[in-house]
Fold this sequence. Notes:
single chain, mainly alpha, 2 strands, about 75% helix, about 0% strand
Amino acid sequence: MNAGPHGGKTPALSPWLSLVLWVALCLGVGALGGFFTADAVRLWYPSLHKPSWNPPAWLFGPVWTALYVMMAVAAHRIGRCACRRMPLALFLVQLAFNAAWSPVFFGAHLIGAALAVLAALWLTLAATTVVFFRRDALAGALLVPYLAWCTFAAALNFAIWRLNA
């Protein structure tokens, strides 16, 4: 039992249930992105000029799935720390930017605006990664591949924006 906000006792969330909820949240954000991406990947995205280093379409699903699971495990680990409020708030802000990118890029076809969303995502994710490292080294390390992928995604988004302006 943990002390509640008013001094009362509240039941602690089971560690497994906490992990399942974080995984569901992160994969749910991915599913939301997939909703906006599915038709655009077949109809709009192929018509765009892309750099030669654009990855094949089949790569994105497995990469994002792995990243979302690692993000969830990182958030779960931080959720078990005493000083979790600010790190988890940052995590949720970056997750909101993550959720916003696909509707802007694939849904609205606003490549430049999507780049701005991705810049905000990158900044909040970098801050989240630093804060996570300070609380739990493994949690921070679990976000490093996501930060690397977002760096690559920003470069790709920028290249597509420039090639299609």
